[in-house]
Amino acid sequence: MSQNPNLFLSVGKQIKDEYGRVVGKVASFALTPSGKFDAVFIEQGDGKFLKHSVEHVKVDGADVTLISKIKTQANILCDQIPLIWRKDQALKDLSEKKKISKELYEELHTSFDGLLNQLKGEAQNLIDEIEKEIVRCAEEIRELNYALVHLEIEHEIGKMDNKSYEAAFALIQENLKKVNLEKSDLELTKNKLSNIVLGETPKTPEQQKVKEETPKEFTSTSATPELPEPPVVVYVKEIGKAGI
Fold it and tell me: Treating both helix axes as pointing N-terminal to C-terminal, what angle do 162-197 and 69-96 enclose, rounded to 10 degrees?
């Protein structure tokens, strides 16, 4: 994030994640000896403290947002891997045009190839981490839907008054919205990283033009499409009316 000399003005303010969930309050900041903001200390609701790099914090007026570490790391890898690949391809072109010696090409190519494999390894580790987070979100969605069903049952048999029911219904619906948004976001990030790890390298303008001009009837359709995930039940109804 950009260095802001008034960043301490956000101390005591609520900090939320990208999906609107309250993470805690900004307690303080850590600065480097040169005076640059280095980290933010966050007090959670249970009184425990978290420390995050300021790179993961976005301050927009009175709003303070904690950016996902996974998305930050994924964006960096999605920029770095294609860049190193393009540099290696440019190096190969220079070698073929006899603009650099074979020895120099081999040395630099080995360096680029080693870095590329290292970055792809980091990307695969991040994909594994993302998959765990997607499973967590799916389980949370499942539990919230169960909570909603039980809420409906208790209201239907008259064990809960309308005011309490409406408040609880709105709370569960809001949380379902946030966790569904997070799950979709994680799936998009995973797909983006997976394409890079699997070797879908950036296409040159000439390759892209050939692809666009290829008639649809000659496009391969032999790949078996993935089956969609089972639908997630999200109750949307007019507040105040009972029934599942």
Answer: 20
